[in-house]
Design brief:
The protein is an alpha/beta fold. The protein is 43% helix and 15% strand.
């Protein structure tokens, strides 16, 4: 009933926050950055990082801390609050990276129109949110969402025997899952 004997999950606590579209996500990134210019936005895929860089360059001439997870070095951003943008399709690679961050909590911001979500019916969820009248700029956050995302990653991991790397999430899905 109270999960008194349930083993606490190892590693940092993941907090997923999901927006309807990439445009809504970018607006949220900008609002967060305006409040805290030391934020560090970490991206798994180059195409998503470039989209964010383009978005920010149209809004400001100030430097924005945008980095790829593979290039992240904590010493370059001492004390920065990190927001990871999107999920990597394979949970073991994601978890290995999160362990290097040495933090108790990791915020992951995603959008329903990115390839991982679209592979699992993101367009249907967007339609459901529309029919419920949800504000497009509102995000979804719940532990059940994080569990569902992890379950989706586990399904992908079960299908991928040898990973083919890519600079794009859409290409990664296509090359590794054939869809």
């Amino acid at each position: 009933m109270f999960n008194l004997f349930k083993k606490k999950p190892e590693g940092p606590q993941l907090i997923d926050e999901v927006w309807r579209t990439t445009a809504n996500l970018h607006e949220a990134l900008y609002r967060a950055w305006e409040k805290d210019k030391s934020l560090l936005f970490l991206f798994w895929f180059e195409d998503r990082a470039r989209e964010a860089e383009t978005f920010f360059s149209q809004r400001t001439t100030e430097a924005v801390n945008i980095c790829l997870t593979r290039d992240h070095v904590s010493a370059k951003y001492p004390g920065a609050t990190i927001i990871v943008i999107g999920h990597y399709p394979l949970p073991e690679k994601e978890n290995a990276f999160y362990a290097t961050l040495h933090t108790g909590e990791i915020r992951i911001w995603s959008s329903l129109d990115e390839p991982l979500f679209m592979h699992f019916g993101g367009q249907k969820i967007i339609a459901l949110l529309d029919s419920l009248g949800m504000d497009p700029n509102e995000m979804i956050r719940h532990s059940m969402l994080t569990k569902a995302i992890h379950g989706a990653q586990e399904k992908i991991a079960a299908k991928v025997t040898i990973e083919k790397s890519s600079t794009s999430a859409a290409d990664w899905i296509r090359m590794n899952l054939g869809s």
